[in-house]
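Q: Structure tokens for this one, please.
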Amino acid sequence: MMLNIIHIDTGITWRGGQKQVSLLCRYLQSKQYNIHLIVNPHSALAEYARKHSIPFTTIAMPCEYTPNAIRQIKKIIAAFNANIVHLHDSRAHTLGSIAARRAGVPVIIVSRRVIFPPKGWPFKKLKYTLPTHYIAVSTAVQKVLQHSGVLHNNITTIYSGIDIQSQTNNTNNIPVQRTTFGLSNTDFVVGSIGALTQEKDTLTLLKAGALLKTAIPNLRIIIIGDGKERKHLEETTRQLGIPSMVSFLGFRNDIHAIYQIINCFVTCSIQEGLGNTVLEAALHALPIIATRTGGIPEIVQHQKTGLLFNPGDVDTLAAYISYINTHPTAAHTFGNAAYDSITARFDYHITGAQTAALYTQLLNNTI
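A: Here is the predicted structure, written as tokens:
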């Protein structure tokens, strides 16, 4: 049977979820699957689909329940003769599930990337009965879904994928000078990449930096990303007396360059479904210091492919940064081990093939 697959993502900006949708669509197109993408107007994914010749339609999907959007999605499903609808975020989950149910689509899949449990019962309880299957990006996310009442047989864990070849080519082909970022070759540079929100807890990294300003006078911290916490974090650097140590670089399109100039990658997330930036750091063979939360331990094995600490533990984070600084051989070993681990498990061709196989399996079960 021909697979006609509609993907729906309502995100406006380009974050980890949108990157995963793009990689999956690229894989499916390369294998000649019939796909169509539904996105918000003026979204980053709309621009990506246009640039890469992915068939797409834009529909205004401003909130969780938009009757007009549901009607339009249903029409597209019918016109496309879709037998699989794959939903990639919470708003898409609601709008797409209702439209697909009304259109009689046999397979409705939701990718669940976040670690926190569903909120807002009883509406959410009804919402979570609409899809026929869930893809969890880690076993940690799978456990949260099960705890929330989703049946084990209705969940498959498929890790987020990463474009190994593309990122390797970018790393090899772009020479980067530290002076471009106001850094010297003698600086020990710690990098953190992600949205500046409370759950990412960049504050813990700043506090660790303050503890180390005497022990590691050449320590520099660069923070990539933006968000509602940025002003508070910038003010905190002044209060901690480390404004010259920390650089806030905002969102950037040259992330590959950032990975090349840092000595150590740190993420302090309180909650994390898996961690796309952790995967990218591992692909660049960087020593990783990360929180022991959500799906991160499924990427980073403590003292084998990196170092793990409990969320909010400033003292341990500071100790680990100091260790990486003073033990370059161990840092190199961690980075190489992380690279070997993720290239064997997280290539998007592997995760794309797993997703395509799931499509076929689920559709065959409905016939």
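A few notes: The domain at 4-161+347-366 is CATH 3.40.50.2000 (Rossmann fold). The radius of gyration is 21 Å.
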